[in-house]
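Shipment paperwork, digital attachment
Item: protein structure file
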Amino acid sequence: MTDKTIKVSIRHLFKIFGPDPETALAAVREGKSKDDLLEETGHVLGLQDINVDMKEGEITVIMGLSGSGKSTLIRHLNRLIEPTAGEVLVNDEDVLAYSDSQLRQLRRERMSMVFQKFALLPHRTVLENAGMALLTRGIKREEADREAQKWIDRVGLSGNGEQYPHQLSGGMQQRVGIARALASNSDIMLMDEAFSALDPLIRTDMQDLLLELQKELQKTIVFITHDLDEALKLADHLVILKDGAVIQQGEPQQILLNPSDPYIEDFVADINRARVLRVRSIMAKDKPDGQVVGEVAPDDNLESVIALADGAMGSVCNVTVQGETIGYVSMVEIVRALVPRRVGEAA
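Attachment content:
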């Protein structure tokens, strides 16, 4: 398998809010902290030297606590916010150098956005909301309606096309938002806390829907969340922010197994590791000592292996794909993985 293409690349991105960001930027580059910058100059350091590559067809999740800079970062991708310094490259093109017409085309055709508060037009029907991006491009109403209806059906809203947003539940409204983003046929989807306003059960349903659609569509998705469980469920690539800076990024399972900073340790401390960690993250190529008790798949979680082994410490499971053994996982390694690793400890 070849490496996936880098779709979006953020390089040395800084954002400073205040009347004289250039002078404040020089102070930050000389080492002034976020707190000192605010206290001494009245400027707010929003983003500090962000470097992230987002691969085509993957979900990149950017997460952090409130005030970490995650929503500020996503709004730089389509230039809803202008940076103080740095580059944002989409297909190797510098978005910051785009003309007004190029920027409009980017927002209309190449990047769609799903918002936390749904952002539906209350006086438009579900069908009209879902086809809005197509209509703004000048596509004829009949064609726009046909494409919008296709995606309304795909997100589970068949029969609701003539209803208005106030007639829908929150989960249904967000399905309209996703249908609108998909109908635009953009290859990049920006999702800013898209499920945060939903009840837990509806939120889980929306996560499952997104993953189901992603298997088929292979969009490049940038997803913002403050919820670690959601991040670990959705992310192919996870980026964790604190105070506007990237603390750690990479494959989520490896971040959980190998935190690089005490902040990350605290972040993942209360996670149900048996439910979140996957067999592929800890399996060995060579068979360890022990009795083979069954077969598991690479993406099975450790909880399912523990159940299969009935907790017996001498148990081993074959890890198989389409009947072929690709590795082994033992209860001994599972127990080791369930103990949180401290910064600096070997993997």
